[in-house]
Specification:
This protein is mostly beta strands. 7% of the residues lie in helices and 44% in strands. The protein has helices at residues 51-55, 64-80, 82-92; strands spanning 40-41, 96-99, 102-105, 110-113, 117-126, 134-143, 149-160, 165-177, 201-215, 219-232, 237-239, 245-246, 249-261, 266-269, 272-275, 282-290, 302-314, 318-329, 369-378, 392-403, 410-411, 422-437, 441-453, 465-474. Strand 5 (117-126) and strand 6 (134-143) form a beta hairpin.
Length: 476
């Protein structure tokens, strides 16, 4: 293990907590609705209460050491303005920076991909200093490679914060990856390395009105109606019928996105709800109904995607994870409304990206129905016990099947289909190098080897291999 040069025994972070059970009542009728969805909640006024308030709830009196610690922290907090720093950290956790009565959207300042190169811009939203229940904002950006402007605006009306009931209206004129999965709606990673690999994009002019809320305690639901104009930014023609080819088109749709995580553990902190996972499988569903002739919509279709993912620990054996993705479209549609983008192989960015095919290029396959299975087992440090060198070994197996109806309708673009089944296996070594960061966390650097085989393997063995690097961040 390599020790970070600025770490020391005196610098670090630790925490401990105690739970007390009192006022016990037996044989009381309890309804599941009586309990909050949150396992732990940090009250918004917790940092504003004085000692008289806390003394009413303390089971044990404070020790001299604890009283002294509180006094020192309070003194430092007033001098160094800890409250202001905490306010900023709360916003940063939401990818924002407060600036008076507006928040700067960090996700809009810089993005990068193969088509746009670097996109520079800014996004601003009003914050709680104007209205707590309503935020109005917008963004604009400019691609240094494609030399195009992107912009948009929206409002977010919060009706019930506890039930996460929000109404959203949005307009955007921007670039979005072709064939983007609807299952990405609930993806919490605003910055994903795969975004750097995107080369096939659509100019989308889109109006959206949506409502989102929590239901059945552990389910999150979003319903939206979208009117979209699509202009592919690559050479493409779609054979609409025997006599007509189109490149640009419009469609209107009703979309429902659902995420259900039974008995999910949620912590409320930094003004947001953070999922700590569930011991049960997590279900995602994205359903889109195309509404022909509504707002000049050209297509009538049903598009559905489903995902089931789960992870579990086996004592003395490690952690197993699997994810099953499936999708189905009932009518022929242009390229950008189909399923693609399941691969992440790029020789110029050899980085492991979870839940993607490591040996498939980003847009290699095209489908209107598919099933993908991702399986991995992490032995953690069970196979290596030495303290200075204990890499984690993970085995991977990825399998995919897909089919495309009427492939002849798609002109001027290359793609493959995977009816016969795509297979790849890999082995990953994490924490080959492990850096101690201020005794707070560890940054691990590793590598993995993945091999492509089966009906869609290349003739040369070296073309089926992908060697990738991995980066991990852990607290132990």
């Amino acid at each position: 293990m390599i020790v970070w040069p600025y770490s020391s025994k005196e610098v670090g972070m630790s925490a401990n907590g105690k739970s007390y059970i009192k006022n016990v009542e037996l044989f009381t009728d309890i309804n599941d609705k009586d309990f909050s969805v949150e396992s732990i909640r940090m009250h918004k006024l917790a940092n504003k209460r004085d000692s008289l308030f806390w003394n009413k709830y303390r089971t044990d009196s404070l020790t001299i050491k604890e009283i002294t610690t509180y006094h020192v922290i309070d003194s430092l907090g007033q001098k160094l303005k800890f409250d202001s720093i905490l306010k900023i950290l709360e916003k940063v956790a939401l990818y924002k920076i407060p600036l008076s009565f507006v928040d700067i959207d960090l996700t809009k300042i810089f993005t990068s991909n193969k088509f746009e190169g670097s996109r520079l811009g800014i996004g601003l939203h009003t914050n709680e200093r104007i209205l707590k229940f309503l935020s109005i904002g917008g963004f604009f950006g400019y691609g240094l490679k494609d030399h195009q402007w992107k912009y948009g605006g929206e409002f977010i009306l919060t009706i019930d914060e506890n039930e996460e009931l929000k109404i959203n209206g949005k307009y955007q004129n921007t670039l979005i990856e072709s064939g983007r999965s609807g299952l990405k709606y609930f993806n919490q990673n605003y910055y994903e390395l795969r975004d750097f690999l995107i080369s096939q994009m659509d100019r989308k002019i889109q109006n959206t009105f949506s409502i989102g809320f929590r239901t059945m305690k552990y389910a999150k639901l979003n319903i939206s109606i979208n009117q979209t104009q699509v202009k592919p930014q690559f050479s493409y023609e779609y054979l609409l019928n025997d006599f007509q080819k189109i490149t640009n088109y419009s469609y209107t749709d009703l979309t429902v996105n659902l995420r259900y995580a039974n008995k999910e553990k949620i912590i409320s902190s930094f003004n947001q709800r953070i999922s700590m996972g569930s011991k049960y499988p997590v279900l995602y569903i994205s359903y889109t109904k195309g509404l022909k002739n509504l707002f000049n919509s050209e297509f009538d279709f049903n598009r559905i995607e489903l995902r089931i993912e789960e992870s579990f620990l086996t004592k003395n054996f490690g952690e197993t994870k699997f994810r099953l993705d499936a999708g189905y479209i009932d009518k022929p549609l242009p390229y950008s409304l189909l399923f693609t983008g399941e691969g992440c192989y790029d020789k110029n960015l050899p980085v492991l990206l979870k839940n993607y095919f490591q040996t498939i290029t980003p847009n290699e396959f095209l489908s209107d129905r598919y099933v993908n299975f991702h399986f991995s087992h992490n032995f953690s440090s069970l196979l290596f016990k030495p303290k200075k060198f204990s890499p984690h070994i993970t085995l991977h197996q990825n399998i995919g099947f897909g089919k495309l109806s009427n492939p002849y309708k798609h002109k001027l673009i290359e793609f493959k289909t995977k009816e016969k089944g795509f297979y790849e296996s890999g082995i990953q070594f994490d924490n080959i190098i492990k850096l101690n960061y201020l005794n707070i966390a560890y940054i691990g650097v590793g590598a993995g080897v993945y091999y492509r085989y089966g009906p869609y393997a290349y003739e040369k063995t070296e073309n089926n291999l992908a060697i990738k690097f991995s980066l991990t961040f852990t607290t132990k």
